[in-house]
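Inverse folding, one chain.
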């Protein structure tokens, strides 16, 4: 799929909304044969105390947000969360760590690799978001069993310095390239509602459409205003802005999963239904995001059912892998 220019994206985004939705729906139907919604469950495996100053983030040590700093969770605790997520129907388990980045050869990186390989045995896709990566660290994460690496651009290159000063957009892009080079899927998106313009949102989309390969998934977050951060009082994103962004992302990235992400608790059921119609086909599921609550699982399952959609089923291949790989990995008979 050819990259979209900024002008093309502007033209798509600003169409009368029903024309935009018609086009997004047509692109969705041409590229996705089912009506499934991917359910991804998040777990913060290392919370708070982060050296970075991302202006939206509850976990930055630069702000007083009331989030308690915690060390890396133990393997048993993480596995208990992951098993629960699998039992609740999630097909992807996403583990987030409040770190600037990780480096190969360090004790914490070795611990994370063990966590990844144990979670991978449960048969769900494994996504991690650990901050900056070296190429070697990316290769080791892939070998440990990571399916997708989440590293968001968050906004346009031009607006990024208004949001973060402790690392650069170029740093973000370097990590994304390392993840792709190592063969991991890339999950990369952004946040609406940080004071950016529509042009900033479309510039971010322009950068995303230039990735080769295209991002496997694009999370579209609406800012969750966190008390104590510089963005605490930001104006909430309007539903039509969100719909336009989702529809434009669907048109620009036809085969990418578009994830209706943080901020979903503030949407009505009807608003969420429109986002699915516009081409969103993935959600964060499980009652909690990283540090803030998300919609309850039963509410999500009820909405999905009422709309005649279905949760994405675990891949048969994953289950087969699970049955064949586990005995060997545990030292039992194949
Ligand atoms: N430290 C890693 C990093 O920065 O990539 C991983 C964790 S970070 C919390 C992951 C992403 O969550 C951010 O890039 C941002 O898009 C999203 N996020 C964090 N706080 C948010 C908030 N308050 N509202 C909306 N999205 C948020
Ligand atoms: C993403 O784009 N959104 C998720 C996930 N990737 C890691 C995180 C949302 C965090 C919302 C605020 C919080 O719970 O701290
Ligand atoms: Fe939050 Fe990640 Fe920024 Fe750290 S690097 S402050 S965890 S968004």
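Residues assigned per position:
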């Amino acid at each position: 799929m050819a990259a979209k220019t900024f002008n093309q994206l502007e033209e798509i985004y600003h169409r009368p909304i029903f024309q935009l939705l018609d086009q997004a729906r047509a692109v969705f139907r041409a590229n996705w044969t089912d009506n499934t919604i991917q359910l991804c469950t998040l777990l913060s495996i290392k919370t708070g105390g982060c050296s970075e100053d991302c202006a939206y983030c509850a976990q930055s040590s630069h702000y007083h947000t009331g989030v308690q700093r915690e060390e890396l969770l133990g393997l048993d605790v993480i596995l208990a969360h992951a098993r629960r997520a699998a039992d609740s129907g999630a097909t992807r388990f996403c583990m987030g760590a409040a770190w600037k980045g990780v480096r190969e050869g360090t004790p914490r990186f070795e611990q994370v690799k063990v966590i990844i390989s144990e979670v991978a045995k449960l048969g769900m896709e494994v996504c991690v978001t650990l901050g900056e990566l070296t190429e070697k660290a990316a290769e080791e994460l892939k070998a440990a069993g990571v399916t997708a690496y989440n590293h968001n651009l968050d906004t346009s290159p031009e607006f990024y310095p208004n949001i973060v000063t402790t690392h650069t957009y170029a740093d973000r892009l370097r990590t994304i390239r390392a993840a792709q080079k190592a063969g991991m899927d890339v999950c990369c998106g952004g946040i609406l509602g940080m004071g950016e313009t529509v042009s900033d949102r479309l510039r971010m989309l322009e950068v995303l459409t230039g990735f080769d390969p295209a991002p496997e998934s694009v999370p579209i977050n609406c800012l969750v205003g966190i008390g104590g951060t510089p963005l605490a009082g930001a104006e909430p994103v309007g539903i039509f802005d969100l719909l336009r962004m989702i529809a434009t992302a669907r048109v620009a990235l036809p085969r990418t999963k578009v994830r209706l992400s943080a901020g979903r608790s503030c949407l009505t059921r009807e608003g969420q239904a429109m986002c699915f119609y516009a081409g969103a086909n993935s959600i964060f599921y499980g009652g909690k995001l990283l540090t803030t609550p998300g919609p309850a699982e039963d509410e999500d399952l009820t909405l999905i059912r009422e709309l005649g959609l279905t949760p994405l089923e675990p891949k048969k291949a994953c289950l087969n892998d699970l049955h064949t790989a586990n005995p060997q990995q545990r030292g039992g008979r194949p």
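Confidence is low (pLDDT under 50) at residues 316-334. The first strand starts at residue 36 and ends at 46.
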